[in-house]
Each structure stands twice: as structure tokens, then as C-alpha cells.
Amino acid sequence: MTTSETASHVVRRAADVEYETVDAAEGMRKGVLLDDTDGAPHFAMRRFVLEPGASVPEHTNEVEHEQYVLAGEYTVGIEGETYEVSAGDSLLIPAGAVHWYDNPGDEEGAFVCVVPNGDDAIELVE
Q1: What are the distances in angstroms from CA 17 to CA 20, 34, 80, 92?
Q2: CA distance 122 to 58
Q3: DSSP type of residue 107
């Protein structure tokens, strides 16, 4: 379902969310749950899936990321610190922070990520 920018509310069913692979990551998919095209004035909410064995190299983003782990157990590196996360954990990754993901397990990992609307380009760290 697509709505105009004047929408007062939106209900999107899980089956209606389309997922695409994330170019900079091996084994990661992203589905946009809500964003400015749905009339959300400030934030985009996305759902990411980390396949078993998936890894995302060190990178930065120009905007903050607020994440909530939905499923699985995986490792996140943020600014040189390493964290093992699992369902129910929350993360704040500040704008410009170097971070990465690794899912060495046999289970799929998934998280919701909320960012300000606008460009959220990934800049790989060399």
C-alpha cells in the first residue's frame, strides 16, 4: 500500500513489505516499513535481516541509527567496542560512528532500524 504525504495514518501488513539486498553487505536484506513516502514526516523505519553467516564491513552513515533486535544473536561493533546482541536489545549508533555486523550463528538475525528521513548512504571504512 502506498499513500500520499497527507496520510493521517498507515497500516502496512508484513506480507506487503518488499526486501532488497544491501549492496555493501554480504547476506543482509532491508525492507522499508514506513518512511516519508507514507507521510511519515520525520523518520524512516526499516527492518533488516542478517542471514546465517552474514557480515557487514566497517562503515559509517551520516545519520544516527536507533535499532531494536527482533531475532537471533549476532555481533555488532561500534567505535572499537564489540557487543553480542539478541532479541530485546536496543542500540544507538551515533551519526558518523564506525560500526559493523557479524552473524556467525545458524539462526537468522533481524532488527528494526529507525533513522531520520533523507539520505542514509553507507560509507565503507577502508
Answers
A1: 10, 9, 33, 24
A2: 10
A3: S
Largest CA distance in the chain: 43
Interatomic CA distance for residues 108 and 3, integer angstroms: 31
pLDDT tens digits, 99-126:
999 999 999 999 999 999 988 888 999 7
* C-alpha grid cell, residue 107: 539462526
Quick: pLDDT tens for 1-49: 444 445 589 999 999 999 999 988 889 999 999 999 999 999 999 999 9
Integer-rounded Cα radius of gyration of the chain? 15
Q: What is the DSSP string of 47-71?
A: EEEEEEEEEEEEEEESS-EEEEEEE
